[in-house]
From TrEMBL:
The gene is LRRC3C. The keyword Transit peptide does not apply. Coiled coil: none annotated. SUPFAM superfamilies: L domain-like. Residues 1-33 form the signal peptide. Keywords: Leucine-rich repeat, Repeat, Signal. The keyword Translocase does not apply. This is Leucine rich repeat containing 3C.
Length: 187
């Protein structure tokens, strides 16, 4: 009789533990679920996170921190907040091309200075960017095909950024204090 008594007392406890385990499994599963249209894969030996054409309006929060290449191209991201990529210590390539980015906060790329080799911001809606946004970055940056305001701030920015070879000719003045510069390459 003591064995049956012990079993009945502990079976309720076991049932509650099992139920808690099942609920935790569902919670952890949903926490690692990627946004629709995104997937994590290994490509050519690099851990890649692709969210190309996923209709994103912001940088996803749950990007795996072992990601080497991040593709957020062809989305509707308009703003890059401070620390947008802070949990990505081994990121080598970041593609943000073909979005609607109009504003990048200083510190958006904080934490990427050591490893990032390539940053693509082409074909966005950048008019002006503070040069501090790219401070300490060693990456090659593509800023082409944006509606740039050609002024002293853009000149300071271009001096501080290591541009992708051949992309400087596509940094075209969409507006300028001098009308004769409009529609012409900045450099």
């Amino acid at each position: 009789m003591p064995l049956v008594d012990w079993f009945l007392r502990h079976s309720v406890t076991m049932w509650l533990l099992l139920q808690s385990f099942v609920l935790m499994t569902f919670c952890f599963h949903s926490a690692t679920t990627f946004p629709k249209g995104c997937y994590h894969a290994e490509e050519d030996g690099y851990k890649t996170f692709r969210c190309s054409s996923a209709q994103l309006t912001e940088v996803p929060k749950d990007i795996p921190n072992d990601t080497n290449k991040l593709y957020l191209d062809f989305n509707q991201i308009a703003f890059l907040p401070i620390d947008a990529f802070r949990n990505l210590p081994v990121l080598l390539e970041l593609d943000l091309s073909h979005n609607a980015i109009v504003r990048i906060e200083s510190g958006a790329f904080r934490g990427l200075s050591e490893h990032l080799h390539s940053l693509d911001l082409s074909s966005n809606k950048l008019v002006s960017v503070n040069k501090d946004v790219f401070s300490n970055l060693k990456a090659k940056v593509n800023l082409s095909s944006n509606p740039w305001l050609c002024d002293c701030r853009l000149q300071e920015l271009i001096r501080t950024v290591d541009l992708v070879a051949g992309s400087s000719g596509s940094i075209v003045c969409d507006s300028s204090a001098k009308e004769e510069h409009v529609g012409k390459p900045f450099l």
